[in-house]
Amino acid sequence: MVEPKPHLPILKRLSPWIRIGVTLGILGFLAGKVNWPNLAQRFTSAHPGWLIAAFLVSLVSICLCGTRFWFLLRLQKIHLPYLRTLHLTFVGFFFNLFLIGSTGGDAIRLYYLLRWFPEQKTRATLSILLDRVFGVAALFGLALLFLPGTTDRLRADPAFLPLAQALPWLGPLGAVLLLLAFFLPGFLPHLPLPRKLPGRAVILDLLHGIRDTAHGGWNTIALVGVALCVHLTSFSAATLLARSLNLPINYSLAGLIVVLVFSASALPISVSGHGVREGVMVFLFAHLGLGAGPEAAIAYSLLLYGIGLFWSLFGGLAYLTLRSPKEQT
């Protein structure tokens, strides 16, 4: 007798359609507000030299993402060659283009790691999770450093006044959380887990993996440094892109915009952040005094996405040539 397939909760079944609806709704609303000739003029008047520089710096940021992942794999005792790690990173960026959500590339990378290192499933899964954690932590850590440079703009608008008032507290709070993040993992492998706990060996391996990452000596220091450089270069690309469009956005403000737009587009309410990203950019431009109409904000948002799209397409070529590292030896 064939057992019936379990029914998914209705919200889970409707989730992709809700995301598509939110995306189309926001894009449709913005389309009705845009002066299309003005938007086209924004693109055609972009300075090609600054635009090319933004593309090249973005490539450096993506390669640094692969370097961050390589250090994480080393700390998890997974020995994947550096060039193969970069190869897999580009494949992950490619799959982020069309899989709903922002973690499709993570799923693909995990699939290949489990296929190549089946005896290290726990460590492989942990490396993917920690890659995301280090990326987000470094992004928000840098935001705390750059926010003081935008205090005057934040205080000038009531929408951002609470954030400006919280700045004196956010820095110390972030420092405390950072210290705890590197101090507490040393105690994790010594937790008194019951011997008959289901999956005890996997949990212990997971706890040792977290400890190895936080207390990995020079590899950990290099990991943190590279994680910071990923976003420092992405902020540079955003600044260069603003200069190509002749927008009054300096390095600190570009960092703030990238952090806020990234945070909003990562919410699971749209298809890969489309619509939400443009809507948040329009809101920020209006409240930070960067432009009266939405055209400048949308042009900036689309070019930021376009840079990532351009380099992600190379991940398609990388996917076609992706083989097991054992096949190359």
Tell me what you see in this structure.
72% of the residues lie in helices and 0% in strands. It is built from 13 helices and no strands. The radius of gyration is 22 Å and the shape is globular.
Report mean pLDDT, rounded to a whole number: 83
Summed up, the helix count is 13
Assign a percent range to the helix content: over 70%
Residue stretches low in confidence (pLDDT < 50, at least 5 long) are none
What count of structural domains?
1
Keywords:
mainly alpha; single chain; globular; 329 residues
Q: Could you give a quick summary of the protein structure above?
A:
This protein is mostly helical. 72% of the residues lie in helices and 0% in strands. It has one domain (42-320).
Describe the SSE topology.
Elements: H1 10-33, H2 36-44, H3 48-75, H4 82-95, H5 104-116, H6 121-146, H7 151-155, H8 161-183, H9 200-214, H10 218-244, H11 251-265, H12 276-287, H13 295-320
